[in-house]
Amino acid sequence: MKTIYVDESTGKQIAGDLKKRKTSSYDEREAAVRAIVEDVHEHGDSALFSYTKKFDGADLTADSIQVTEKEIKAAYEEVSPELLSVIKKALKRIRAFHEKQVQQSWFTTEEGIILGQRVIPMERAGVYVPGGKAVYPSSVLMNIVPAKVAGVREIIMCTPCNKEGKVAASTLVAAAEAGADRIFKCGGAQAIAAMAFGTESVPKVDKIVGPGNVFVALAKKSVFGNVSIDSVAGPSEIMVLCDETANPRYIAADLLSQAEHDEMASAILVTTSEDVAKAVQKEIDGFVPKLERKAIIEKSLEDFGYILIAKDRKAAYDCVNEIASEHLEIVTADPFTDMTYIRNAGAIFLGAYSSEPLGDYFAGPNHVLPTGGTARFFSALSVDDFVKKSSIISYSRNALEEIHEDIESFAKCEQLTAHANSIAVRFE
């Protein structure tokens, strides 16, 4: 990891470097992804099945692309009782957290006037779940639960299968527990296109959420506008803000928990203590050789790992806010006070025992978070992502009469005389 003494430009410089990770390989792949998306849009199932054969090696048809009840039952028999118990416990916590986010429609009334906001769930949501190098039942829960709590009528899930047309058992069990209505065995850009435009087998959805590789991210970017998407997510990030009271061994372990995701993941320590900075580096050097994903971690730390030493707390806060990390741990003598100075972070973990993986799996808040500095203006996936809000306006003649001349004046100021006339004709 690179050790840097923080100055006014440090945060901005690192933030810029992290943003480049998302787009570094986009240009060369964008045309290929666009071709896949257009092909599926034009040719539907035939293109979808062709790409599934090409990329996943599976021969699928209209009769076999959808996961059956028999396959789900077999998945339950394959998953251990211990894992099923963990999935159910996590699901309960995630659902309870998201139920607190539900908004109700509301109305206000006064003489002759009714104003309000109607909150309406989307008809159909699409959830993408990766299934290549690893399986992610936690992502299944995090993406389906807020849609279910929001009241979405139908939840469609797409996830890759193996050459035999089988989907990972833990993925299917998590989907069934969370409430997915239909599951399709397709992945990559072709699955995103299928959900965005619809094919003979896969229905068109209103919104697509869920993580994926660069091809999935580019496909989501390509179809945005035809459907809504959650975000174009980049590589994972963790930042730890700590002082001299922190346990260096805990900090090192937490930084490495994200560095193992992939070579472009970022792990950053911001501290006001040089002694802690040195101790954390020593602990990292001891941990890395013992970890299974050693090569990935080493590359991640070499390119996007930083130990930032700040002269005081204000400099540390400024750096944290400038970088706007996906995950932020605050491990200080008074983390709740320090939190009040933080404006930009996807999820904030407070105290020595609130390690980032707690949020990934079990605490309840969503682990689909803004990356690449977008925590400055984006939020975690939530129930709000699956509802629409319609304004309600109702005026009586008497109520409109009191303000009609003001509206007409406003419209004439903008030279929109038809707007003015639409009001004026009611009082001729």
How would you portray this structure in words?
This protein has about 425 residues and is α/β, with parallel strands linked by helices. Helix content is about 45%, strand content about 15%. The chain is built from 18 helices and 14 strands. It has helices at about 10-25, 25-45, 45-55, 70-80, 80-100, 135-150, 170-180, 190-195, 215-225, 250-260, 275-285, 295-305, 315-325, 335-340, 355-360, 395-400, 405-415, 415-425, and strands spanning about 1-5, 105-110, 115-120, 125-130, 155-160, 180-185, 205-210, 230, 235-240, 265-270, 305-310, 325-330, 345-350, 385-395. The strands form three sheets. A six-stranded parallel sheet has the order 1-11-10-9-12-13, with helices on both faces. Strands 6-5-4-7-8 form a five-stranded parallel sheet, sandwiched between helices. A three-stranded antiparallel sheet has the order 2-3-14. Helix 2 crosses helix 9 and helix 5 (about 80-100) runs parallel beside helix 6 (about 135-150). The longest helix has 19 residues, at about 80-100.
